[in-house]
UniProtKB/TrEMBL annotation:
InterPro entries: Syntaxin/epimorphin_CS (IPR006012). Syntaxin that may be involved in targeting and fusion of Golgi-derived retrograde transport vesicles with the ER. This is Syntaxin-18. Belongs to the syntaxin family. SUPFAM superfamilies: SNARE fusion complex. Keywords: Coiled coil, Endoplasmic reticulum, ER-Golgi transport, Membrane, Protein transport, Transmembrane, Transmembrane helix, Transport. Residues 30-43 have a biased composition (Basic and acidic residues). The gene is Stx18_0. It is a single-pass type IV membrane protein. It is found in: Endoplasmic reticulum membrane. One of its GO terms (molecular function) is SNAP receptor activity.
Length: 169
């Protein structure tokens, strides 16, 4: 019934040139006939809606339909229980992941402090090595000067012995 007015409007638009040539009496007759066809279709639609719209058909279910609905309900309850169990498992896994993430965060913070300590120790060791190298260079210089003095002393002692030996002869 909803499509008929649209079809009659669509059919009127292409024929508008022909209708302009027709008399106004013919237009009114066409309108009346279309309204009558609408009125005829309405009781059929109401009779069809009466069975479904009132809900009378739903009250009377056969035993097979009842059994089928019960089986479907049991299946749906089973699926819901399975989904509930899966949700519980996922929830437990999420809690475990959260706990592990907290442990991971603690370990990362602990590693950060350890890395800072190691960095400070490396900087200190580098400074100690530089100081040690400087002390070694200074010791080498002092040792070289000491050797020169010892060598000079030995040479002077040798010359004095030679001079005393020559003087004694």
């Amino acid at each position: 019934s909803k499509l008929e007015p649209e079809q009659s409007n669509v059919s009127k638009s292409p024929l508008s040139a022909e209708k302009s040539s027709q008399s106004p009496l013919e237009d009114s007759e066409e309108k009346l006939s279309s309204e009558e066809s609408k009125d005829r279709n309405l009781p059929d639609d109401e009779s069809n809606l009466g069975l479904w719209g009132d809900g009378r058909g739903e009250d009377e279910l056969s035993p097979e339909e009842i059994q089928m609905f019960e089986q479907e309900n049991q299946r749906l309850v089973g699926e819901m229980n399975n989904l509930f169990d899966e949700v519980r498992q996922i929830e437990g896994k999420v809690v475990e992941i959260s706990r592990l993430q907290e442990i991971f965060t603690e370990k990362v913070l602990q590693q950060e402090t350890d890395i800072d300590n190691i960095h400070q120790l490396v900087v200190g060791a580098t400074e100690n090595i530089k100081e040690g190298n400087e002390d070694i260079r200074e010791a080498i210089k002092n040792n070289a000067g000491f050797r020169v003095w010892i060598l000079f002393f030995l040479v002077m002692c040798s010359f004095s012995l030679l001079f005393l030996d020559w003087y004694d002869n």
